[in-house]
Design a protein that fits this description.
Chains: A alpha/beta, B alpha/beta, C alpha+beta
Largest sheet of chain C: 4 strands, mixed
Helix content of chain C: 40-55%
Strand content of chain C: 15-25%
Strand content of chain A: 25-35%
Distance between the termini of chain C: 10 Å
Strand order of the largest sheet of chain A: 11-10-9-12-8-1-6-7-13
Oligomer: heterotrimer
Helix content of chain A: 25-40%
Number of helices of chain A: 8
Shape of chain C: globular
Structural class of chain C: alpha+beta
Structural class of chain A: alpha/beta
Order of helices and strands of chain C: HHHHHHEEEEEEEEHEEHHHH
Radius of gyration of chain C: 21 Å
Number of strands of chain C: 10
Largest sheet of chain A: 9 strands, mixed
Largest interface: A-B, 92 and 104 residues
Chain lengths: ~260, ~400, ~400
Amino acid sequence: MASLNIIVTVKQVPDTAEVRIDPKTNSLMREGIPSILNPEDANAVEAALRLRDEHGGTITAITMGPPQAEAVLEEVLCLGVDRAVLLSDRAFAGSDTLLTAFTLSRAILKLKKFDLILCGRQAIDGDTAQVGPQIAGFLDIPQVTYAEEIAFSKGMFRIQRGLEQTRELVEARPPVLVSVNAAGPVPRYGSLYAVEGACSGEKLKRWSTKELALSPAMLGLGASPTAVKKIFEPDRSVKGEVLQGSEKEMAAQLIARLREMNCL
Amino acid sequence: MINLLTEKCIACSLCVKACLFDGIRLDGKIPVLTDHCTGCGACVEVCKVGAIVSEGSSPPPPDLGSYRDIWVIVEQQEQGVHPVSFELLGKARELAAVRNCGVAAVLVGSAVGDSVSALIHGGADVVYLADASFLYPYRTCPHERVISGLLEEHKPEIVLIGATCMGRDLAPRLANRFKTGLTADCTGLTIDEQDGCLLQTRPAFGGNIMATIVTAHHRPQMATVRPGVMQAVHSDDRTGRVVEVEAKPDSVDDFVRVLQTVAKPGSGVQLEKAPVIVSGGRGLQGPDNFKMLSELAELLDGQVGASRAVVDMGWIEHAHQVGQTGKTVKPRLYIACGISGAIQHLAGMQQADVIVAINRDPYAPILKISHVALIGDVHKIVPELIAQLKAQQ
Amino acid sequence: MTVWKGDIQAMDFSFTRAQELARDIARSFAQTELAPYAQEWDEQARFPAEAIAKLGPLGFMGMCIPKEYGGSNLDGVSYVLVIEELASVCASTAIIVSVHNSVGAYPIYLLGTEEQKKIYLPDLATGKKLGAFALTEPNVGSDPASIETSAQADGDHFILNGTKTFITSASTSDTVIVMASTDRNKRARGISAFIVEKGFPGITVGTHESKLGIRASDTCELIFENCRVPRENLLGPEGFGLRAALNALGFGRVGVAAQAIGVARCAMDAAVAYSRERNQFGKPISSFQAIQWMIADMATEIEAARLLTLRAAKLKDDGQPFAAQGSMAKLFASETAMRAATKAVQIHGGYGCMKDYVVERCFRDAKVIEIYEGTSEIQRMIIAGNILKK
């Protein structure tokens, strides 16, 4: 029976569903937003767990982030992942997707063998969907994106992709990187059985530039090809009309307005 | 800056293996640095004989002036060229006017020759055409190899790709090949007056922050662009030329094979095309209440959408989800029922022409972007709308 | 102050990562698996079988049992956090889980022989079997020393005769820890505990009571008519049963306090949200002082109740006596829940009386919580006893 060495890259992100707009200033309130495991990474972890449950093997989760990113590693350890690695170093700060992919790739190489790298399609803060394919580029392995289902048989991965108009069934030879959509496998709940192990520290390693043998001067903000020149918030307010009256009256007014605006 | 002390080298090639940038290689037994070296120092760390040292400052940036022209990577679909490719050509023409350079289109696929003239009319001065059966359906590896070869040879300054499934699969791989900057999902592209660099504007944080990104010292500057944002141009008078590119398959291409392609069922949810969307959120209080939304949607010739919260709770399938991790829609009319308007939902629908919100919370964030708001009980208002619309038919 | 003797060493009010993770896992499960169905279960008085079945493999049914017997081995603080999360969405599920853990399985771990632990704990800890606890009788509530159910020795069996009432999970459980008198003359010292399997001959489950609140948890009579229980199922030494029961209940009490906090929190959150949306006199009612004061009182009491409960749990984790604090927690938390639910219904006005609004259920659940697992009167007796005896 085949045994799969699977690596999953995960990211801790602010929960953009909880980001509120300050009604007075009409701008984003970015403090105090809870951090969560990136939703599509949870789908990727579930895909990994299902493959391991069926075929045996080991799953290692990696994340690159500040020390508090350890929380998502503990979370995925509770889901059933076997080991986790935190890549954390001041030198990583300001990395764009290329440098992030580079750093993650160095860590993956240090882990040596892998049959499959799984990642979420994109993170809800950056929304780029670039890091996965760029890791595949650095490691010079094939990639299959937009995966919704992954199976493994006779030494090959069979992947169901969900594209705009079509669904594609693809066969890929390991090692391969696969990025998973929100329409991927529904994540399971964490298990209380795994809580103690997740927090004991035995399953979690922390690596900095030292363990990755990287020169800090050539990482992070300074080395990133892209740089943010400006951040601004779009003018999002609309002079809207609040209808008054009973439900019946409001419904009637709405229909009239919509006719005026040629929406019906 | 990496310095090689070649006399110490024992040709063990640990440095080559350690480098992720293809920055060093062994020429026989002599180590040689390539153009791709970034000075990261990984090779220094692994060399056991001290043949590699790191000193001084970073390597000099490439000669930016030697990169010219704006290129568009064209997407071939079953039924012809994806509309976004024409939109990008239109934008490329605009940028080329400022940069005083030319526009090229790269068309890689199979039996695509017919599209060449449309691309020229759409703004391309040159079409690089690679036409071979192994190039369709799209796979990352062969496309990346063929296009990279062209980019390496011709050195365009800007490369634009549609932010479609294909584009977002291909672009990062190309950017990685050149270790250059890539900006995803751009909604705005202009040229900086001062240094001639491409200013790329894109949404982040679910669309509630806009960022302007620059790739100052690397080439080509790459960007993927959202469909439906840029403007296509068309002129039958326009002329251009075709360059046929030879494309040979490689055994590594077949590490990935497409076994089967199936169209998604037509009667399924096609939110992106719906002119009217009636959407439901937690305020509906239960999955059964989506029935009345379906009824209303049908009366308005529209489709039913949903917020992430109710999809996560299993009230309706993911295909209906509007928002950052669902679909981005631009209907004529968007009616949000019992949806508070979390930022990640707004990201998916704030471009609708007319936004109506029905909610009992007068402070719901969605009201800030609504053209018409009904503050009240959605369970009473929606049936009223249905009844009145039916009566008026 | 004797109750506080020798404690409050490190005043660290933060949770460990393990405790936070346990809480987050419980919250996530409750949101998706319990919240959409809680109202329906309450209306139909339907046991949440599907949800309970899912909880077992995730470790929720063995929280007080070590890993070697199949449990998830959480500390007391984690346990309290988990129960609170479940209760904030479905108080019935919370009590089913709490009773199973604290008085259904835990006593077997505390008192059982190695043999008994090996036979019963793995199935209970993994949720394959559901546990219950039977002390209360029609004539015996607050005065357990007077129980009338008898256990007569007969060779290698005991014969149990009697009736137990108000037993949580009576009909759905697989094993019940039953308190019976092996020697009426010795009163309290004559009561013994037995592990009774529902399959033993001579047990009948009586009527399923239709209750005011906590309706999805089945509460029925258990009738023992010449029920033959093997001698090996005597739990702990003969005559030790009442003491064992009261110990177990001491911990169960902390779980009930957590349940009460969950209900109180649910009521308060609903009331706060409603007060923001409901407009009268041209303003949201949250801008009126009367409403604000009610919300302030709710919040203050819930905060205090939570601290009391966590403290009792922490004392247990540290191996310290916690009987008084456990009773204080149950007393205060359950009465807080009743007050909070009452205020929450009031804030909702007429809507607070409608089944569509969750506060209506909070109100009914809170009343039951105030009474069961030791009435407030009993809790006060215990607390006073603890102070006055020193």
